[in-house]
């Protein structure tokens, strides 16, 4: 009887341990290892819903939406009561919709709305699900289920869950209506309500970039670098904003070094950070250092096409 109980406990423990290993690989940006580990786990435990979700997320990080979709679908089928699984399936539909023709996009929009709404229903405290659902309501036309009032409802629900995020929703609504003064006011309120959080500064930075107020954007990025960093992906995103705007590459590299020292995160995989650092170095003429970064990127995700192409280009 004792042996039976011990075997049962071991069987329950092993999937949880495997999931933790895979999550750690994803968080550190070691995508090739994560995919290999997850496929191995699923070959012996095909009904492991969490492993299916994690494999979906691994392909998602590579922007392989078609490969991600069946694994996210499987996770939802195996564990229909898991809020996060519905959220990730909705995200995959969203990425595919952005790249599809109008008819296909309209069909996918309905699917992603269903998944986001289900994620919120299953876990009303799921902040990420409410944020993604809000963005859908803001961006989608009414005939697809969008609507500002629906987004405002999410903002009111978010206010006690994550102070400041409600202002992000109000800012996005104002920006969509071309009320840029109102949007800026809400972005600044977000910064204040979040107590100077880097994520709030990032959203203000991206707003300024969209408005092509690049000098102010650069100043906001400097503030971001000095702010409280709740999520390291804000450092990566701010660095990318500088790179794409052709501004202050030195600060962009500094942000990436802070990102690496703080520790990579799944939302901004390390293989992408190495690639971005390589781009910055190449722009500055340091091809040898850029090559090292592109190699580092490819070593983590050998199927990441931009790094492969960069390696070929720099080696010529």
Verbal overview:
This protein has 316 residues and is mainly alpha-helical. The chain has a domain at 225-316: Tetratricopeptide repeat domain (Serine Threonine Protein Phosphatase 5, Tetratricopeptide repeat). Helices cover 78% and strands 0% of the residues. It contains 17 helices and no strands. Helix 4 (65-78) runs antiparallel to helix 5 (83-98) and helix 13 (233-245) packs parallel to helix 15 (270-283). The radius of gyration is 21 Å and the shape is globular. The termini are far apart. Residues 1-13 have low confidence and may be disordered.
State the gist of this model.
With 316 residues, this protein is mostly helical. The chain contains 17 helices and no strands.
Topology:
Blueprint: H1 2-27, H2 31-44, H3 49-61, H4 65-78, H5 83-98, H6 102-122, H7 127-139, H8 148-158, H9 165-176, H10 180-193, H11 198-210, H12 214-226, H13 233-245, H14 249-262, H15 270-283, H16 287-300, H17 305-315
CATH superfamily of the domain at 225-316: Tetratricopeptide repeat domain
Q: Examine the coordinates and then state which fold CATH places here, giving the name of the CATH topology of the domain at 225-316.
A: Serine Threonine Protein Phosphatase 5, Tetratricopeptide repeat
What is the averaged pLDDT score? Answer: 93
**What's the N-to-C terminus distance?**
67 Å
